[in-house]
Design brief:
By secondary structure, this protein is α/β, with parallel strands linked by helices. 43% of the residues lie in helices and 13% in strands. Belongs to the short-chain dehydrogenases/reductases (SDR) family.
Length: 282
């Protein structure tokens, strides 16, 4: 569709969002569109055997595209597994050909493979690292050619987790391969972020990571995780925030993404920013 007149912080800009079919990724895509950006939206839209809860569907990604278009902005929405670096590069290239540039990368795709029998399989570890560590690196690497052609520089924000500072496992009873993989991946992307922040600063590309606590998304609010949490009270207790506030909504993390990519965050790079209502202070 034809874009309406520019109307926000990101007028004339383009953002790549992975994990865009629902949850935080959808919220980020819609929020950046509301701020004037065109959107390249990517999601696997398929089930991984290591994940106990239902993952996103093609219909979810279609809904994200509809919501972006409803703002008056344009969208290229493609099914893509972030573990496939070549496919990512093709999707980014198609989006850049459509929109003419790339300004922001939100490496958001993630899984939480800790519940059920699935979380006890070694595949839960390898999938977690493949999606949330390798996949983040592949996302940034695939986007770099377009970012480097941008004379204005740009911004990259990696979605880590409060588990980037601590462990999902709270003791022997919660120790499984999925918890180890999630913790390792979310710690690892801090190193990836710092690598790119240092390497790309001279190109005026800022790189940061965001570390949410519990957010009300389908990855967190589902029957499988509720059952696992009920079986492991120490896990539930560890997720409690210090601030007496309701559970965060995806849009609250979108606020942080806008700050880090927008003019207010122009001096911020190399920062691992907790947005967890004090969860990691305990």
């Amino acid at each position: 569709m034809t874009a309406d007149a520019p109307h926000g912080l990101f007028d004339g800009k383009v953002v790549l969002v992975t994990g865009a079919a629902r949850g935080q990724g959808r919220a980020h895509a819609v929020r950046f569109a509301e701020e004037g950006a065109d959107v390249i939206a990517v999601d696997v839209c398929a089930q991984l055997d290591s994940v106990a809860y239902p993952m996103s569907t093609p219909e979810d990604l279609d809904e994200t595209a509809r919501l972006v278009e409803k703002t008056g902005r344009r969208v290229v929405a493609e099914q893509c597994d972030v573990r496939d670096r070549d496919r990512l590069a093709d999707v980014v290239a198609a989006g850049v050909e459509e929109f003419g540039r790339l300004d922001f990368v939100l490496a958001n795709a993630g899984i939480l493979p800790i519940a059920g029998d699935q979380g006890r399989s070694i595949t839960a570890f390898t999938d977690a690292v493949a999606v949330m560590l390798n996949g983040v690196y592949f996302t940034v690497d695939a986007a770099l050619p377009a970012l480097l052609r941008n004379p204005d520089g740009g911004a990259i924000v990696i979605t880590s987790s409060a588990a980037g500072f601590t462990s999902v496992s709270t003791g022997f009873d919660t120790m499984n391969h999925g918890a180890a993989g999630y913790t390792a991946a979310k710690h690892g992307v801090i190193g990836v972020m710092r690598h790119f922040a240092r390497s790309l600063a001279e190109k005026n590309i800022r790189v940061n990571s965001v570390h949410p606590g519990g957010v009300a998304t389908p990855m967190v609010l589902n029957e499988a995780l509720a059952q696992w949490s009920g079986e492991h009270p120490s896990f539930s207790q560890a997720q409690q925030a210090l601030l007496a506030m309701p559970m965060m909504e995806p849009e609250h993390i979108s606020d942080t993404m806008v700050y880090l990519c927008g003019p207010a965050g122009r001096y911020v790079t190399g920062v691992a920013l907790p947005v967890d209502a004090g969860q990691t202070l305990k």
